[in-house]
Design a protein that fits this description.
By secondary structure, this protein is of the alpha+beta class. It has helices at about 25-30, 80-95, 100-110, 115-120, 130-140, 145-160, 175-180, 185-190, 195-205, 225-230, 240-245, 260-270, 275-285, 290-295, and strands at about 10-15, 40, 45-55, 60-65, 70-75, 165, 165-170. It is globular, with a radius of gyration of 20 Å. The structure holds a DNA duplex.
Amino acid sequence: MPRDYNRAPEFMILTLVARPPFNFRSVVHSHGWYQLAPWEWDDAAQTLSRVERLASERVVLLLFRAAGDGLAVETQDRLTLRERGEVERKSAWMFALEADFTAFYARADTEPRLAHCRAKAYGRLLRSSTMWEDVVKVMMTTNIQWSGTQRLVSALVQRFGEPLPNDPSRRAFPKPETIAHSREATLRKLGLGYRAPYLLKLARGITAGEYDLAALMDPSRPTDELRRELIALPGIGPYAANTLLAILGRYDYIGVDTEAISTVSRHFYDGRPIGEKEINAVFGAWGEYKALAYWFWDYAGMGGDSNG
DNA sequence: TTCCAGGGGTAGA
DNA sequence: TCTACCCATGGA
């Protein structure tokens, strides 16, 4: 979508290689994140964009599109070498370009309800540029309907996010420091309700150096250690921790929420009331791929999309 | 109006 | 480790 800028745009296009198989659209639609600010999906153009604040304090618009078997990242500004490196690093993280699903596909091929995963390159879950953003977003999915999550995240971005210089209607995801300096009453007024003190404690804890969310991105750390660390965060319990582990590329635990319970109950237990135990009984055999099996299971039995 | 949502924290057993 | 209870807000 063309926008008016005061000066002639100096577009820069970065093309990033992904480990095959890779499917841009599959990553974008892997879960609901593309519907949350500052992400914006343009279905007609098949592009995903977001405002990103760089370490240099510069706020830029990033536009992502499919490029062959990889990813193209377009910016309207001329980046310094350092900024360009940051954009490449963050983009690779957000789209999990390096992720390797070879072993998962080998097993999925033997299960008719998962055999579509290889062809559609299912597995990658769209991530935010920082764990801070993903932790906040998962926190905003707790005990609330999806439309409410969209509203809360949008309110946080609009209220605390840094605006794009040439288009202040679009903003980056707020820094922890900005939230940390706000008040609980302000957050409650945005509609966060009882989540307000959790978010405030998280933001202030990060600012004080009490929590190091970036350390969760370390692939060499054991999953259970990360899980303990996640659950220790304010407002993050078993469901949120398991969901965040999947975002981190660790699929040993299923984020059991009311949606998971109703889906699994409907398809495996004839609609009768179940709990976490029954969900794990269904997918337990998938071991380190439990969350992938649950998430990309073809519940309709059509060999098509299982997620919206 | 009532119920409950892509749950978490806490107290008490 | 498990259960009961409370939590704010908005949608259905």
